[in-house]
Amino acid sequence: MECLSHTQNLHLWTLGGGINTKTDDLFSCGSVCCATVESMRILVVEDESSVAESLRRGLKLEGFEVDVADNGTDGLWMASEGSYDAVLLDIMLPGMNGYKVCRALREAGNWIPIIMLTAKDGELDEAEGLDLGADDYLTKPFSFVVLVSRLRALLRRGAGRGERQDLFEIGDLRLDPVSLRCSRGEESIQLTAREIAVLGFLIRRRDQVVTKQEILDNVWDFDFEGDPNIVEVYIRRIRKKIDEPFGTKTITTVRGAGYRLDGSPPAEPGLSSR
Questions:
Q1: For the chain, how many structural domains are there in total?
Q2: pTM above 0.85, yes or no
Q3: Structural domain containing residue 224
Q4: Which one of 24, 49, 188, 245 has the minimum C-beta count within 10 Å?
Q5: Same domain as 152, residue 172
């Protein structure tokens, strides 16, 4: 359970070479809920000491165990040798930048979840980080509430402790969310990053009925305020690409409940593929 009495008060703002944190109420929070979160280990790789300390203290109050590295070389060593559930990785680091750290981990077969942090703002920067295998991306200044939400969503997806768990094969359908590749048999299927994220979540929950809200919570941000019917749009697009050309029915709609993905789903009463 998340302690909103303190997470709502923490925001990080980069001001030149320093940082201003609204933490007066944060560190005086005595809520018992902070101790009820299952302990998970997070590695923060950040060279700005004030940012790193704010993240360390805030995450500890959320129930996480936190280690900090102040340069890319140490961060790579700690991520490789330690047992962490996720890494918060700044891009502009001394010794070795965040891009190189991320690339080195992935090339070594370490698939620990990575959220990249940067003061740089641009789609090309984000694309480069994600192309190298990062799982998410936040631009400073960012809300601590958003960071924690993204972190929890990432951890719930099942990856962690350095093992790759997101290369899927169901029947002749193959999905690799990291390289953004999908295929059925020998035929490549072009999916957008968001379509791959939706399909990947359904595959992780295969043989289970998942609701629209569960898909929104795990694929979109927790603070998503758009039309929840966007999920239907993406399900329709995915079906047109992975099922209709091949005469298959991988994703089934359970009326009034949600969606279910099956490797070779049979036609059943009360279920609709529309």
A1: 2
A2: no
A3: 168-272
A4: 24
A5: no
CATH code (residue 246): 1.10.10.10
Of 92, 9, 78, the closest CA to residue 42 belongs to 78
147 occurs within a structural domain? yes
Q: What are phi and psi of 230, to 5 degrees?
A: -60, -30
**Torsion sign across C-alpha atoms 213, 215, 221, 227:** negative
Residue 239 lies in a domain: yes
Residue 185 is classified by DSSP as T
143 and 263 housed in the same domain:
no
Q: Which two tokens stand for residue 271?
A: 């279920």
Find tokens 């719930």 and name the residue.
Answer: 156
- Per-residue pLDDT 10s for the chain (274 aa) are 334 334 444 444 332 333 334 433 333 333 333 333 446 889 999 999 999 999 999 999 998 999 999 999 999 999 999 888 899 999 999 999 999 999 999 888 887 888 888 776 554 455 666 667 777 778 888 889 989 988 887 776 554 555 555 578 888 999 987 667 899 999 999 887 778 888 988 988 888 999 998 888 777 755 566 677 888 988 999 999 999 999 999 999 999 899 999 865 444 434 444 4
Q: What single string gives the DSSP state of each residue in 4-43? A: HHHHTT-BEEEETTEEEE--TTGGG---GGGGGSPP-EEE
